[in-house]
């Protein structure tokens, strides 16, 4: 159970990172 939650948190964090990268790229380019 704890492992699943941890994996989910990592997944969310990765998605957020991708989103911010896209937003930054869109704003600058």
Automatic annotation (TrEMBL):
Domain of life: Bacteria
Protein name: Uncharacterized protein
Classification of source organism: Bacteria, Bacillati, Actinomycetota, Actinomycetes, Streptosporangiales
